[in-house]
Every structure is written in C-alpha cells, then in structure tokens.
C-alpha cells in the first residue's frame, strides 16, 4: 500500500482500542437491539498508545468517525500526563484480546524512508490523508462484512488491464469505421499519439488537442494502455460537469462493460444505483452502489467537484476513496474549467500524488492552462520543477489543420438584445450562448415571439428536461430542420452538438474556443462554421470573468491572434495568473487569497480549516469562504414534479418526509427532477414562499415551471423578477 503498510497496520490495529473498556462494553449491551449509538468515546486510547510512534498520523485514529481535525486534537490527549486506572485497565484488556498489539512495532521508523527524506509539509499533509483514507475504508469494509455475516470484506476482483485495453481498442475500431474524412484522419492521429505516449514512464502528461477531435476516446485509450503497460490499478476520469460525466460514462460503458462484468463506475450526485434492498436490484446495480463508496472499480467516471472535494475533505465518507488514487491513472478532462482561485492546492495535491504515490495524471483540454507558471509547479531551492510530458509534442500544426470555424468579433458598439434577436432572425440553425440564467431566459422569450423553433437550456431546468431538449435539438439538426437554441455556458464543455452558427456573449478565451467546438464540430460544412462574439449591452456575467475577458480581447480580439494560438494562449494564462495575484506574497497574510489560505492551513495540518474554513475567533464560526470549496455558492435542492411523473414523485416525497423510506434511495430516484437553486435565490422572500420543505434542505417547488412536454420548450423554474448571475 504505497509503502506505508506498516504504518497503516498499526493505525488499523489500535484505532478501536478504547472499545475494550468496561464502560464501552457495558453501554454496548444496553443499546443492543436498538438503533441508539453507544455514545462512549473510544478513539483516544488508541491514539495515546501510538502517538509517540506514529506522530501526527495518530490524527487518523482520532478522526476515524468524526473526521480529521488538527494538531490541537493531539495536544488534548495530554500524552505526558498520568494514565487513569480506567485507561490502564482498558489498555490491558485490549492487548489481551488483541495479542497482535503487543507484537506491533511501536517505535520510530514506521514512515516509509522516502517520505522522511522529503521535508515537505504539504506532502506530509497529503500522505496522512492517504493513510487515513486506507484506514477508514478498511474499517467500513470490515464492519459491512461483519453485519452481513461474511468471512471477509467484499472487494472487486483485480482486472487484467491488458484485457480491458484490448477490448476498448477493438470496440472503438468497430465504431469509427466509415468514410475517411479530414476530421476522421485527425481524430485517428490524436488517438494514436495518446496510445503511443502511454508507453512513456509514469508521471504528469498533457494532451492539447482541438475540440471535436475525439479526446473522449484518446484519453481513455491512453489511460488503459498506460495502466496495462505499467501495472496501474485503475483509470479515473474526472470532468467538470455532470452532463459530460453522464455522456462520457455512457460511451465508456459501451466500450468496456460486458453482460457478465460491469467495468465502468459512474459516480456523481445524479446517479441512481437502484434500491437499497439488495433483493430489488441487479448484480450490476449492487456492484455500482458499493463500488461508489470507495471507487473499488477498474474504470471510474466522476466529476472534478467529487474528486477534489474528496481530496481536500476531512470526513471518512468523503476520503475513504482517496487511497484508490495511488498507483492509478487520473485523467482530468476539460482541465481549463478548474477554479482558478483553488489552483495552488489542486496542483500541489496532484504533484504529491505523482511524486509520492505512483499516480499518473493526464491533463486534457483544447485550451491548456499554463500551470507551470505557478509556484507549486516551479523549481525551487528544495526541489526541481514539475516535468510535464506532452502527448502531442507540438500541437500547433494540428490546431491549424483542424480550424473549422471563423470568429467574427462584434464588440463595438455593444449590441442590445433586440439587435441580437434581429441578427438571428434569418439564421436557419444557430445556437446562442450567454453568461447567466437571466440572460438566457430573457433572450429565449424574446426570440420565441419571432419564431417557434426555439429551445432553451439552463440549470433552472431539471436534468431530465435538459436531456430531452438536447435529444430534440440533435434530432432536428440531423434532419436539417430550423433550430435555434439559447443556452448558458453549461453547453460548452464536451456536449456533442454541431451548429453551423454559434453566437457567444463575450467570455474568457477558453470559453470562446469551447463555444467554437459546438460549430461545424465534425467538419460537415465545406464553407466552415461561424462564431460571432458579441458584448451585450445589458448582459450579465460572473465577476471572476472580468479580468479574463479584458485579456481575451487584448490577446485574441478583432486585431489579435487566433484563439488556438498555443504560444499566445500560454502568455494569456501567465498574465491572468499574475493579474489575479495567485502567487503574490503579501506582508499582511490576512489578505491572502483563498488558495494561499488553504495551502497555509494544509502546512499546519489543520484539516478542519482546509475543509470547513478557518475559525473566526470573534464569532466562533468557521469562515466557509476561506475553505476549499469547488462551488462557492451553497445550493438548495428543490423537486419539480412534472405532470407525467407527479404521482410517483409526490409519493416519494411523502415517504421521505415521513421517514418511511431510505433517504439515499429516494434522493437518487428524485435526482432527475431536482433543480439546484443558489442559497441567496432560494432565501429571497418571493422565492422561498414557493418552496415547501420536505426534509433537511430539500424542498418542493410550487411556483411556475415553464415546460411543455410535447415540444420540450420552456425555461423551467421561473424566478420571477429575481435576476442573479451564476
């Protein structure tokens, strides 16, 4: 286990030592046959018995139920104080019941020698996370086996990655047969470059390739071939949005799963794994539900939110999957979408995984950020810089060959929404991408007055209806029917649609190029596609877009470079990072940005502050704005029952409110009809009055939901006059 097996053994052996106490055992008998907890602390004894040998790793024992905390938790043990008679008695009872404890090597040197040779506080913080992950996962698996009467924990049998790589290649080859086109040839080149690069030594790789050239296939081909050649245990693909997760997981299941052997695990908040009663689910559903808890699968598709909030979380339920990252291939798709404010901890964490845990990381994007410009990857006095292997050594010629669209900049004068609508009036098939839900809703309604063939896509529609809209739009595009789609930026990353014309409200350079990837995606238009970049007079956009938009115009505007100019793109990112002062060291550290604050708390081994924010002494509360949070705004889930499924959904909500059904199973079934509202939106009086509480923060929407099931048209949940940028 990444060289820390002896350390993990000691932690696992002693973590429940306190259960040997008479008080704990007596209380266990009292609650037997009930759902009541024992309620007697038991973790302190194991920590006291081992701390002098394992040091800060004893935090894993103290946190195996409630989560990792900080150094102060060890100080509270009073290691130099006298032992109570009860503690001495419990220790004797434990060592009698578990004689292996007496034979355990409780001396210095439990840490792998290569860990001791690197004086890196951030590295040590991540190492303790990984050991903690392995310990709590083993604890959960043992407990589950005991409750089911099994002789040993249930684990997925190892899979021969060479077999999976060969199966993937065979099925992929069968799917891509057909007339040879220029786009097809370039897709083959990208795929072959990825497979060839897989033979290189493990480490950090980067795949820069234009949109629409088959990165979904290429990155998986790399991952499987690399795993087969270098003995990696699994491939984990993380993408920025659930829509892409669902799409990619479906592709990979076709290429890897068999009737006898499920291979691809899709894990995110929208996935339904079947009922909680094992008798009511298939073997595949049961496997998926269990594997999702700790990524015990050979091929995992998840979201970057799930991945990184687990990596920097502190609760056992979050982190028990982390040890699966060791000796794995981790693929970060659409890597440009990682939140800039958190790049320091994210890149630092990836570096430790590569250098300490044998993880290979592949970064894929058409707009590769210049991560080497940031301090956590730069060389320093203590260590060399991060080495990045390019899958395509010089991608610029490929980008030039792959150009399938022209960009037309209409920034001055700014256009009104009426002028945007007029500009689209005579366009048979087009998509408009704007920067806020409010803009999408308003433009959709404006265009709907002029023509009927208009559809809308935003997060104010539940996932089920968004899928239906995409299905209708794709079908109409294939049939050559008039089609106009108004969408927020959720359409950009990885959604497989191809319009002849795309209008894009001014956004950062990576968003503009992603929008271009939805135009003439397959090179089907001989004359090429068109992307019109406009700056709407009354348009809204996130505050964090402002500096990036200014630099986009500077580098790539009407008189600038092509958006796919790789050298210029690197310069753009370097200046953006400088302007945002991601690495700027202030004399007053209280003014550090959130990435720097998270890094400082990691160096202090303050896991509580990293995950929940530092403690505000004045208020006694945690400052969540300074925690590691991939999504800044808290959201409130509301269920929107549609007419077709209303009876079923209402029954589920009633059972959930009454506590007569499993919350996990019910929420999985409700997920396709849940809209996530920002906390600020949901708490506004005109909105909160329309939400009936169900259980926890889950509510039922009683307001307007604009949706026609016959045409799949409408804006979904309508917030009346409340316009908020998201």
Give the key terms.
726 residues, alpha/beta, 6-stranded parallel β-sheet, disordered C terminus, 7-stranded parallel β-sheet, Rossmann fold
Describe the model:
- It is built from 30 helices and 21 strands.
- The chain is α/β, with parallel strands linked by helices.
- It starts with a helix and ends in a 9-residue tail after the last strand.
- Residues 270-281 and 721-726 have low confidence and may be disordered.
- The strands form five sheets. A seven-stranded parallel beta sheet has the order 3-4-2-5-6-1-7, sandwiched between helices.
Give the beta-strand count: 21
Q: Quote the CATH topology of the largest domain.
A: Rossmann fold
Q: What is the class of the largest domain in the CATH system?
A: Alpha Beta
Quote the distance from N terminus to C terminus. 42 Å
Helix amount, in percent?
Answer: 40-55%
Strand order of the largest sheet: 3-4-2-5-6-1-7
Number of domains: 5
Overall spatial form: globular
Arithmetic mean of pLDDT: 88
Quickly give the structural class.
alpha/beta
Gyration radius from CA atoms, angstroms: 27 Å
How much beta, percentage-wise? 5-15%
**Biggest β-sheet description:** 7 strands, parallel
Outline of this structure?
By secondary structure, this protein is an alpha/beta fold.
Secondary structure topology:
Elements: H1 5-14, H2 22-31, H3 43-54, H4 58-62, H5 72-75, H6 85-97, H7 100-103, H8 113-116, H9 121-147, H10 161-175, H11 182-197, E1 204-208, H12 215-230, E2 235-239, H13 242-256, E3 264-267, H14 283-294, E4 299-303, H15 304-311, H16 316-319, E5 329-332, H17 343-357, E6 360-365, E7 388-390, H18 396-401, E8 405-415, H19 417-424, E9 429-433, H20 437-450, E10 454-457, H21 463-479, E11 483-487, E12 501-505, H22 509-516, E13 529-536, H23 545-556, H24 566-579, H25 594-603, H26 607-612, E14 615-616, E15 621-622, E16 635-639, H27 646-658, H28 663-670, E17 674-678, H29 679-683, H30 685-688, E18 691-695, E19 698-701, E20 705-708, E21 713-717
Parallel strand pairs: 1-6, 1-7, 2-4, 2-5, 3-4, 5-6, 8-13, 9-11, 9-12, 10-11, 12-13, 16-19
Antiparallel strand pairs: 14-15, 16-17, 18-19, 20-21
Helix pairs in contact: 1-3, 1-9, 9-17, 10-12, 10-13, 11-12, 23-24, 27-28
């Amino acid at each position: 286990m990444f060289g820390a097996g002896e350390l993990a053994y000691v932690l696992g052996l002693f973590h429940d030592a306190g259960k040997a106490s008479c008080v704990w055992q007596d209380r266990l008998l009292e609650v037997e046959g009930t759902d009541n907890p024992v309620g007697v602390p038991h973790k302190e004894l194991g920590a006291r018995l081992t701390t002098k040998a394992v040091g800060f790793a004893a935090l894993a024992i103290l946190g195996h139920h409630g989560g990792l905390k900080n150094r102060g938790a060890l100080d509270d043990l009073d290691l130099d104080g006298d032992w109570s008679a009860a503690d001495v008695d419990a220790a004797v009872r434990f060592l009698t019941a578990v004689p292996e404890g007496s034979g355990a090597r409780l001396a210095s040197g439990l840490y792998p020698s290569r860990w001791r040779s690197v004086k890196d506080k951030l590295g040590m913080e991540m190492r303790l996370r990984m050991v903690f992950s392995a310990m709590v996962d083993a604890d959960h698996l043992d407990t589950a086996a005991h409750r089911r009467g099994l002789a040993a924990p249930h684990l997925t049998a190892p899979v021969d990655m060479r077999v999976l790589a060969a199966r993937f290649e065979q099925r992929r080859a069968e799917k891509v047969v057909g007339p040879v086109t220029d786009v097809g040839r370039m897709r083959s080149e990208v795929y072959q470059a990825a497979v060839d690069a897989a033979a290189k030594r493990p480490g950090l790789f980067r795949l820069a390739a234009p949109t629409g050239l088959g990165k979904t296939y290429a990155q998986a081909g790399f991952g499987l071939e690399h795993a087969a050649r270098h003995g990696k245990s699994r491939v984990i693909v993380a993408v920025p949005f659930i829509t892409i997760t669902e799409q990619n997981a479906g592709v990979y299941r076709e290429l890897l799963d068999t009737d006898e052997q499920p291979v691809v695990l899709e894990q995110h908040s929208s996935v339904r794994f079947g009922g909680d009663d094992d008798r009511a689910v298939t073997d595949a559903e049961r496997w998926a539900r269990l594997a999702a808890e700790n990524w015990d699968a050979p091929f995992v598709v998840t979201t970057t939110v799930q991945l990184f909030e687990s990596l920097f979380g502190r609760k056992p339920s979050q982190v028990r999957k982390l040890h699966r990252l060791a000796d794995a291939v981790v693929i970060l798709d659409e890597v440009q979408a990682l939140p800039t404010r958190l790049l320091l901890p994210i890149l630092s964490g990836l570096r430790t995984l590569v250098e300490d845990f044998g993880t290979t990381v592949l970064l894929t994007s058409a707009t590769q950020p210049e991560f080497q410009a940031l301090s956590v990857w730069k060389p320093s006095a203590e260590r060399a810089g991060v080495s990045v292997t390019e899958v395509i050594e010089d991608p610029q010629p490929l980008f030039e060959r792959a150009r399938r669209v022209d960009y037309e900049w209409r920034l001055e004068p700014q256009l009104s929404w009426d002028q945007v609508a007029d500009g689209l009036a005579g366009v048979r098939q087009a998509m408009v991408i704007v920067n806020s839900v409010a803009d999408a809703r308003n433009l959709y309604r404006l265009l709907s007055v002029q023509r009927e063939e208009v559809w809308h896509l935003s997060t104010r529609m539940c996932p089920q209806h968004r899928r239906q809209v995409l299905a209708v739009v794709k079908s109409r595009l294939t049939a050559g029917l008039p089609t106009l789609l108004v969408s927020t930026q959720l359409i950009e990353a990885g959604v497989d649609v191809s319009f002849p014309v795309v209008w894009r409200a001014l956004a950062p350079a990576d968003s503009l190029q992603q929008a271009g990837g939805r135009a003439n995606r397959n090179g089907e238009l001989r004359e090429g596609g068109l992307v019109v970049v406009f700056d709407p007079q009354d348009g809204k956009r996130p505050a964090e877009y402002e500096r990036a938009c200014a630099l986009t115009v500077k580098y790539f505007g009407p008189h600038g470079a092509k958006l796919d100019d790789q050298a210029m793109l690197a310069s753009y990112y370097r200046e953006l990072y400088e302007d945002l002062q991601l690495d700027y060291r202030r004399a007053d550290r209280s003014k550090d940005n959130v990435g720097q604050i998270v890094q400082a708390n990691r160096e202090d081994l303050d896991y509580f502050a990293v995950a929940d924010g530092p403690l505000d002494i004045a208020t006694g509360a945690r400052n969540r704005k300074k925690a590691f949070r991939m999504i800044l705004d808290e959201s409130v889930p509301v269920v929107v029952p549609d007419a077709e499924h209303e009876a079923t959904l209402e029954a589920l909500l009633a059972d959930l409110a009454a506590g007569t059904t499993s919350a996990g199973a019910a929420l999985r079934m409700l997920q396709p009809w849940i809209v996530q509202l920002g906390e600020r939106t949901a708490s506004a009086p005109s909105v909160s009055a329309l939400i009936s509480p169900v259980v926890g923060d889950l509510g039922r929407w009683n307001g307007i939901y604009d949706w026609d099931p016959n045409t799949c048209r409408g804006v979904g949940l309508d917030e009346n006059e409340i316009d908020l940028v998201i």
